[in-house]
Amino acid sequence: MATIQVSEHDEQLTAGVREKVPMTELTEFFPRAFTDTMAALQAQGVHPTGAPFGKYYGPPGAVVDVEAGFPVSAVIAPAGNVVPGSLPAGRVVAATHVGSYDTMTDTYSELERYFADASLTPGPVMWETYLSDPEEEPDPAGWRTEICWPVHRG
Hints:
Layout: E1 4-9, E2 12-22, H1 26-43, E3 53-57, E4 63-71, E5 82-87, E6 90-98, H2 104-117, E7 125-130, E8 144-150
Antiparallel strand pairs: 1-6, 2-4, 2-5, 3-4, 3-7, 6-8, 7-8
C-alpha cells in the first residue's frame, strides 16, 4: 500500500516530447523521448534539474496522450520533436509506487480512492517521476516512481 500525501507543488519547467502513443508502444516511446530530450538539452547547454518524468493528458485508453522528458531550470527553445513545457503548480495528491511499472495501476487505484474519500476532484493531467533507473536497478522490486495527480481547481 502506498503512502499518499497532499502538498503544494510549484510550477516546474520541463523539456520533453509529447505524442499520442498506443498503450502497447509506451515501452518504446519513453527511451526515445528521453534520448531525444537529452540530445536537445545538450545542444542548448541545458542540464536536467531532476529525474525524468512522464506526463499524461487525460485517462489512458488504447492510445495515451503522453509527454516524457526532464525538468529544467529555464525555458528551452523547441528542437525537432522536443518542446518546452511545465508540470503545473497547485495542490497535488502524490504517492510513491514501489515495484514494476506493470503494477502501477494498483497505486493509481489507491489514489482514485483517496480522491473519492476526501471529496476531491482529480485534475485532467497527472505525471510520474521515475526515481529509479532500471539500468542501474535491474530488479523491478526496487523501482520507485512518484505519481503526482493535481487536485482540480473548481
